[in-house]
Specification:
Length: 206
């Protein structure tokens, strides 16, 4: 994480978020990182509608992410939130007979000019610390198996890799097809201090 700092996605960092999403043409066909905010069966939305929705959710404190900065430049993030905020694909818990988590880590994005230098890992550590600052609890993620990741462009590894999550203390719960896993970790609450700078996943924020 040398050289990186973490800030929460909120009204103050929203302009930086907008800037990087615009740079990447709305991300994945104009998603604007709202796909997991939508329950199954909803209407198709345009990129413009997705942008408007994302801005509204951020200002209402209903969209969360750990933003990774290289100096003053935003270079990537990890999206997280409770199931009520990110309801997409929740049927898997009924399918596997699993208790739902308090938090979900649903996706990552890394600027194309900063891939392969540890931004996703910094974003994951940052998300865990921000979750701890909000009370902690069970955290689930849905990463890709490393064997598949080796054959996959980094731009498509939007859920992270199993290896990265395992190295951060997550354990596997179930397989999602041939390529993905449900993984879980318990995060302890941290109730004081400011969650702007992140060290290790179990260390104090400063």
């Amino acid at each position: 994480m040398s050289g990186f700092s973490i800030r929460a996605l909120d009204a103050s960092t929203l302009p930086d978020f907008i800037r990087i999403v615009e740079k990447h043409k709305g991300i994945w066909g104009g998603c604007w990182c709202v796909a997991f905010h939508h329950a199954p069966g909803g209407p198709t939305r345009t990129p413009g509608q997705n942008r408007t929705e994302k801005e509204r959710l951020v200002r209402e404190d209903r969209a969360h992410a750990a933003l990774v900065y290289d100096a003053a430049t935003l270079v990537g993030w990890c999206q997280f939130g409770p199931p009520g905020e990110l309801p997409a694909r929740m049927r898997l818990y009924t399918q596997f007979g699993l208790d739902p988590p308090e938090w979900r880590i649903t996706c990552f994005f890394v600027d194309r000019e900063h891939r392969g230098v540890g931004v996703a890992k910094a974003a994951l550590d940052g998300a865990l610390r921000l979750i701890a600052a909000r009370g902690g609890g069970r955290v689930d993620a849905y990463p890709t198996e490393a064997t598949l990741a080796k054959r996959t462009s980094s731009s498509f590894l939007w859920a992270g890799t199993v290896t990265m999550f395992a190295d951060t203390g997550f354990r596997p719960l179930a397989a999602l097809g041939k390529s993905k896993r449900v993984m879980r970790r318990e995060v302890r609450a941290y109730k004081s201090g400011s969650p702007r700078h992140v060290r290790g996943p179990d260390e104090k924020l400063s």
